[in-house]
Design brief:
globular; twelve-stranded mixed sheet; alpha/beta; Rossmann fold
Length: 315
């Protein structure tokens, strides 16, 4: 089933080229069903690329998902991004009184800033609190995962001396977890981050469950007991060449920047990398939308604000 977005969104052309079923809003209006309402708070500077990456994963589900792209009132992007934002995004202040079945908060290039030094941190905290009462389940990605864990659970990240960058093996920690249903015992995920929270600290928080990770990356996939918060510390949404582009950018500023591990064929940065994590990424997002959104959210979306969750898939 399709993802529905505004008819003119540039991401549509790229996704259709990949044979991803994206339905313009004008066509979706003629279908007499209630689509899932999902919002994406896109904090990344490369707006269109990030939209394509996440919408691609959301489209691999039998559910019809209507996507709203959101922006914070206090955050301004470059001039080109502002034009795109003004056309396709809604301000947080415009949707404060609305409810959503699901929400994705993307990462952000803010690795070395203290949260209190982030110019929009105060509004982002308000946004996180709003989501707890207006969204059935929120998925926090990479930097947003650490920010959400700090805001909701007081878990402060540490910064690694060297960036964790590459494609790493992960293990599933529960045999019958809803989010990891259908996963292989081991699977691959890209990471690109300095932030890290020791898994022992996470395990000491009684409301959190670590579902997957590894000794190298630590906790990768975790959630709170109700599933209203899902955290992923890596980047399953990445394209095959995303880490390559990041590395090319990094070595301009630092010729000794770490090369992504387990990524380039024969460790040759001039060789074309392969995408070895896509099946896991599709399955993760499908499981999330099914078990923690569709199976849980009330049919009457107005009831989301009453914290009505019909199932609890606590692992």
């Amino acid at each position: 089933m399709p993802i529905t977005v505004k008819d003119e969104l540039p991401a549509i052309a790229q996704l259709r080229h990949e044979n991803v079923f994206v339905m313009p809003k004008s066509r979706a209006m003629s279908q007499e069903i209630r689509p899932m309402r999902l919002a994406i708070l896109n904090l990344m500077p490369n707006k269109v690329e990030t939209e394509v990456q996440f919408i691609r994963l959301l489209a691999n589900t039998p559910l019809q998902v209507h996507v709203d792209l959101l922006r914070l009132d206090t955050h301004r992007s470059s001039e080109n991004s502002e034009q795109h934002l003004n056309m396709f995004y809604r301000y947080f202040s415009e949707v404060k009184d609305q409810n959503y079945d699901a929400l994705i908060v993307t990462g952000a290039p803010l690795a070395h800033l203290e949260y209190s030094d982030v110019i929009y941190w105060e509004e982002l905290q308000e946004f996180f609190d709003w989501a707890e009462h207006h969204v059935t389940s929120t998925l926090f990605s990479c930097w947003a995962a650490h920010a959400g864990l700090f805001h909701h659970h007081g878990l402060k990240r540490a910064l690694k001396e060297n960036k964790l960058c590459g494609v790493f093996k992960h293990k599933v920690y529960f045999d019958h977890g809803a989010l990891t249903r259908g996963f292989d015992d081991e699977f691959l995920v890209p990471h690109s981050r300095y932030g890290h929270i020791d898994i022992e600290k996470i395990n000491s928080c009684k409301d959190l469950v670590v579902l997957a990770g590894s000794q190298k990356v630590g906790a990768y996939l975790l959630k709170n007991k109700t599933g209203s918060q899902v955290y992923i510390t890596g980047h399953p949404e990445y394209d095959a060449d995303t880490l390559q582009k990041e590395y090319q950018r990094d070595i301009i500023n630092d010729v000794d920047a770490p090369k992504p591990e387990n990524y380039f064929p024969n460790n040759d940065h001039s060789a074309k990398p392969s995408k070895t994590w896509q099946s896991h990424a599709f399955l993760l997002f499908s499981n999330w939308l099914n078990y923690y959104v569709y199976q849980t959210t009330p049919y009457d979306i107005n009831l989301v604000s009453q914290d009505v969750r019909t199932n609890n898939y606590a692992e």
